Structures are given as structure tokens and as C-alpha cells.
Amino acid sequence: MILAANFKMNHTRASTRAYLQKLESIDKGDVALYLFPPFTALDNYDTAVATIGAQNAYCAQSGSYTGEIGLEQLEEFGIKTLILGHSERRHLFGESQELITKKFAFFKEQGFTIFYCVGETQEVRESGSTELIYSYIEQQLEGIDVAYEKLIVAYEPVWAIGTGKTATTEDIATMLEFLRTKTKRPLLYGGSVKPQNIAQILQVPECEGALIGTASWNVDTFMTMINIAKEL
Ligand SMILES: O=C(CO)COP(=O)(O)O
């Protein structure tokens, strides 16, 4: 079971350190924990409780890429885990599949664990056509080595992210079954996961964990979810 906390543009270095200190006290059982702080909160945290990853990075060692960080900056903190293809990168910041593919190839070559996100928009979901939803997701897998041994795929429907709306367990099951036909790698769900729904979601067949935004930002809430997950 995997639980990953995507801090998005929340927390500072000081608050991430305090978060980790509190998290250290948990007995996480068999749950593997990942934390994705914002760039400026990356550091050499002396922690064994969670693996620290970056929310994004550019596909170069270093260079003239204003506003980006690359391999050199990640290596300073021993970071070998990355989210790629998050819907906020795709839709708010215009990352194309072509760019995401380039990033994937670069960081795969570097042996990174990659949390790769896919998910349909509200418009596609409301079309009511399963075929359209599947082909939309297929496009987001284009150019991605779905057999990569350090790949983790997160299904995050855009309409369920940060909205409080969660996909039904039936919808999640259908989409994860579809993704299972594409890859043998672990499949996660993300989108308004919280203490009230995490048990149901984690019991969906093929669901091996959750990528959590809002409900992970408070360490007590994240710990509540870890305690629920480890009992399943
Ligand atoms: O985008 C997400 C995780 O990457 C999900 O965010 P929320 O949990 O806030 O819906």
C-alpha cells in the first residue's frame, strides 16, 4: 500500500520539517509513504518515515531554463522520486504530452521512481462516452514506458481534484481495470481522498494506494489516513 502526500504550493521548509518530525511518531505498518513538498521545501531531511520526492522537474542536468529545477538541484538532496504529468501541470501550466514524454524518458534514464498521473477532464467525463474517456487516457500514456519498473500510475480525474467531489468506487474500479490492461505497475487513485472515504477507495480492486492533496497538508489528517490504511 502506498500513500503519497502532494503538498502542491503549500508548506515551507520549516513547516515541512515540523510535519516530518510529527510523522516520525507513527507506526506505519506496511504502508509506504511519500511526500512531495514544493521546490523550496526540498532539503536533506534526516527521515526514514517517508520518501521525499519533487512535484515536477525539467529534463536537463542544469542550464538556461529560468524558473525550473533539474537533475543537479534534485541530486543535492538525494531526490530520486518525481511526479510527472499531474493535471495541474497539464491544464494550468500547459504541459504538453510531448514535454511530459521527454521528462519521463530523461528521469527514467536516471533511475527515478516516477508517479505518473493521468485523468480525464470534466468535459470528457460528462460526454458520457466510455470510449472517449479511455482514448483520452490512452493519449496521456502515449510515449510513456508503461513497463518501467519504477513507474507508479495515479488515476486522478481532473473534476475530482481539489473539488471535494470524489469519483464513485465503481468509476474508480472501472478506470483502474482499464489501466490494468495497459500496465502491470502499481495503480493509485487521487482526487479528494480524505479520512471519510479512504477505506472504501483503498478497497477498490487494483487500487494499491492514494495520491492525496488537500487532506494530506495537515499532518494529523494524513496520520489518520495512514492508520486507516494500515488496518486494511
Ligand atoms: O491532485 C491531487 C494529488 O496529486 C489530489 O488533490 P486533492 O486531494 O486536493 O483532490
Automatic annotation (TrEMBL):
PROSITE patterns: TIM_1, TIM_2. Its main location: cytoplasm. Involved in the gluconeogenesis. Catalyzes stereospecifically the conversion of dihydroxyacetone phosphate (DHAP) to D-glyceraldehyde-3-phosphate (G3P). Substrate binds at residues 6-8, 162, 192. It comes from Nitratiruptor tergarcus DSM 16512. This is Triosephosphate isomerase. It is found in: Cytoplasm. Pathway: Carbohydrate biosynthesis; gluconeogenesis; Carbohydrate degradation; glycolysis; D-glyceraldehyde 3-phosphate from glycerone phosphate: step 1/1. It catalyses: D-glyceraldehyde 3-phosphate = dihydroxyacetone phosphate. GO terms for molecular function: triose-phosphate isomerase activity. It is an enzyme of class 5 (isomerase).
